[in-house]
Design brief:
3 helices, nine-stranded antiparallel beta sheet, four-stranded mixed beta sheet, 42% strand
Length: 248
């Protein structure tokens, strides 16, 4: 069954998190997600519910992919930095799609899924900042209760590698800054813009041109550090008003 892409604590939580914009009637910005890799011929899952990645005789099939994100913010061009970790409280010029942690069930069929929309003031925005967040502690307890398999984790994947089932998990906890290829310009006449965050799962388990067994990248595994570094490099964000998974 196709998973819903964004799960928050409820409609009220999303509304509260998205209250930093200009108010009803202003320009809107939506946030979309895709796992469609750019220019990757091995990607063969469009039209299916799973992502299939091949290299030589190795076949990796990802059937479920979850990631926890926090403090997703669109940064104004003249702003020095956003504060994804929420430690300084200095976020002037940073429009928040979501402040608290959210579980994103990533689409695996090459499609684009849009769930979060906010109103934003006119301006030029050139970066999407966010945190890949490990669920832990009292502040995250509600989501841990809802998603017990994600306790102490930020990422969880299920699938098969050469026909053998695996579960890959990671406790990666890191701030990310995605420079937009082309800044997004919002004017008084702008109705809506869309930002797509592309997460290229096809690169996560690559070592050069070879695939590694995801089970070998779990905590303490031989490929844990390799895959964590691949994950950090796999995020790319861009304006995508037609929601086709490519930079406008």
């Amino acid at each position: 069954m196709r998973n819903r892409v964004l799960t928050a604590l409820g409609v009220a939580a999303v509304a509260a998190a998205c209250s930093t914009g200009t108010g009803p009637g202003g320009p809107t910005a939506s946030l979309s997600f895709t796992t469609k890799p750019a220019g990757t011929p091995a990607f063969s899952s469009v039209g299916t519910l799973d992502q299939i990645i091949t290299s030589g005789s190795d076949v990796l099939i990802i059937t479920k992919a979850q990631i926890v994100l926090k403090q997703v913010e669109l940064k104004g061009e003249n702003v020095t930095a956003c504060d994804p970790a929420g430690t300084t409280g200095d976020d002037d010029g940073c429009e928040e799609f979501e402040t608290g942690p959210m579980v994103v069930n990533l689409p695996l069929d090459g499609q684009i899924s849009t769930e979060v929309s906010i109103t934003i003031p006119p301006g030029t925005y050139d970066e999407l900042d966010f945190e890949v967040h490990k669920l832990e502690g009292a502040a995250d307890q509600a989501l841990i209760t809802q998603y017990p398999d994600l306790a102490g984790l930020s990422i969880r994947l299920e699938g098969t590698f050469n026909g053998t089932a695996f579960v890959y998990t990671s406790d990666l906890d890191v701030e990310q800054e995605n420079q937009l290829t082309t800044p997004i310009v919002v004017t008084d006449g702008t109705t809506a813009v869309n930002v797509t965050m592309a997460i290229d799962l096809s690169t996560w388990f690559m070592n050069g041109q070879a695939l590694v067994d995801p089970a070998s990248a779990n905590l303490g595994g031989a490929n844990e550090s390799l895959v964590k570094e691949n994950i950090k490099r796999s995020f790319h964000s861009f304006e995508d008003d037609d929601r086709n998974g490519s930079d406008d």
